[in-house]
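Hi all, long-time lurker, first post. I run a small reading group and we've been trying to get comfortable going from sequence to structure in the token notation. Rather than ask abstract questions, I figured I'd post a concrete chain and ask someone more experienced to write out its structure so we can walk through it together at our next meeting. Sequence below, copied exactly:
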Amino acid sequence: MTEVDAQPLRFPQHLVTIGSDALRAMAGSTRSLKLAVVLSDDGFEVARAPWSPVRDGRFASMASSAQALGEALVHELSLGSGDAMIVQASGGAMIQMRVPGNPFVIAAHFGEGESLGTALAAVRITAQSLATALAHASTDIDPAPTERGTT
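-- Answer (accepted) --
Happy to help. Here is the structure in token form:
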């Protein structure tokens, strides 16, 4: 069973594939990526790396809430547009970045072995790469969740 086959039919398969490919490329370019997720604005997981069939939705949901809070703070303080959010802790860092021009966010957890600059650059490159891939993909991508068997 592949990642795309196991993914619930919440998003179009080509969107899951594009997101998975982007995250795998990021994982290959960093030393300490623990988890990376492409998530929708409404907190649903589109793709993840490393892939796992076990998903409870908590990480994507919390990351979506944190993104909304960060963007609200940026708006409240009139700081322009929010680009990235960083949470740095003793055990590593969590970096979130909006995929330019899309209703998706990349949330990535890096362990202690990655410099913050390297991790931030990896997420930024991945967000840009994902935006480019989405722009070249089918123009009928509907980011709204759908139920299996419905149109």
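A couple of things your group might point at:
Residues 116-136 form the longest helix (21 residues).
The longest strand covers residues 33-40.
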